[in-house]
Structures are given as C-alpha cells and as structure tokens.
Amino acid sequence: MEKEALYYRLGKENLDLLVDRFYDLVFVNDQIAHLFKNDKEEIKGKQRLFLTQFLGGPALYSEKFGHPQMRARHMPHPITETDAIAWLHCMSQAIGSLPVSEALKDELFARFPPTAMFMVNKEEQ
Ligand code: HEM
C-alpha cells in the first residue's frame, strides 16, 4: 500500500511548529541570518504554504504565488554551499525538536538536502 503523504503523517500542527522553530534558528544563525532581510512572520507564512505542498499536502503556495520556481526565487540571494549546510543544520535541529517518531524525523529531513544544494548559486569566497 502506498504511504500517506508526509504532510498528513506529520500534521499541520507539527508543520507550523517546525516552521516557527526553524526560522527562530535561522534568524540568529551566524552564517545565514544576514541574508534574511524581510519580516520573519512573512517568510514563515510563505514557508508554511510552500512546505505544505512540498510534503504532499494541498498546493497552497502555488495557489497564492504561482509556480514555486524556488531556484529562481532564490537568485537575488547569494547562497554558497556553506550557507546551504548552515540552512540544513537549522532544519535538522528544528526537525529534531518535534514531538514525532525518529523514523518520521529521518524521512522528513531526507527531503531537504537535495533541494538545499540545488539553491546554491554562488562560489565560496
Ligand atoms: C540552501 C539554503 C537556503 C538559503 C540560504 C535560503 C535563503 C532564503 C532567503 C534569503 C529568502 C528570502 C527571505 C526574505 O524574504 O527575507 C528565502 C525565501 C524562501 N525560501 Fe529559502 N533558502 C535556502 C533554501 C531553501 C529551501 C531548501 C527551501 C525549500 C525547501 C526554501 C524555501 C523558501 C521559500 C518558500 C521562500 C519564500 C519564497 C517567496 O518569496 O515566495 N529555501 N530563502
């Protein structure tokens, strides 16, 4: 039998918790905090919509903002491989703090490294 999409197994409440904890970490991260220039609540809102669809739930981000084109949307922000690793570290910590099984945490985290590496658009200095 096919597994239910991650979004439904995780649940909306845990997704909201994840996004809150993740950006609380990102906004104080020495490596990447400087990249985030807009309002924290606004980016959290966008990320909640995006992750809902990224994890197999309703296409809330596309309904509001059109095709995700995440790499293109990140182009104005110079992202190095070190930045991507810092982003993933915040994500790993935020996922680790969720009240869900270790198996679900592992499955969830595994969705991010390929996408994060795809966002890299700048050589290391
Ligand atoms: C690889 C490291 C990454 C860095 C350094 C990064 C950085 C950023 C920055 C600076 C913004 C703009 C924030 C603002 O408006 O102030 C942004 C927007 C966003 N990022 Fe990332 N990002 C990364 C990876 C990812 C990944 C892997 C995802 C999805 C899984 C993602 C999803 C988003 C979304 C949904 C937005 C909002 C896009 C919009 O404007 O509609 N990012 N990111």
Give a written overview of the molecule.
InterPro entries: GlbO/GLB3-like (IPR044203), Globin-like_sf (IPR009050), Globin/Proto (IPR012292), Globin_bac-like_CS (IPR019795), Hemoglobin_trunc (IPR001486). This is Hemoglobin-like protein. Keywords: Heme, Iron, Metal-binding, Transport. Its cofactor is heme. The N and C termini lie far apart (48 Å). The chain contains eight helices and no strands. The mean pLDDT is 97. With 125 residues, it is mainly alpha-helical. Helix content is 62%, strand content 0%. It has one domain: Globin-like, CATH 1.10.490. Protoporphyrin IX containing FE (HEM) binds at residues 32, 35-38, 43, 46-47, 50, 54, 65, 70, 73-74, 77, 79, 83-84, 87, 112, 115-116, 119.
Order of H and E elements: HHHHHHHH
- Rg estimate, integer Å: 14 Å
Low-confidence stretches: none
Whole-number mean pLDDT: 97
Number of domains: 1
CATH homologous superfamily label: Globins
In percent, how much strand structure appears in the residues?
A: under 5%
Structural class: mainly alpha
Return the CATH class: Mainly Alpha
Overall morphology? globular
Largest sheet: none
- List bound small molecules: protoporphyrin IX containing FE
Helix content: 55-70%
Q: How many helical elements?
A: 8
Overall strand count: 0
CATH fold title: Globin-like
Question: Span between N and C termini?
Answer: 48 Å
Tell me which CATH architecture applies here: Orthogonal Bundle
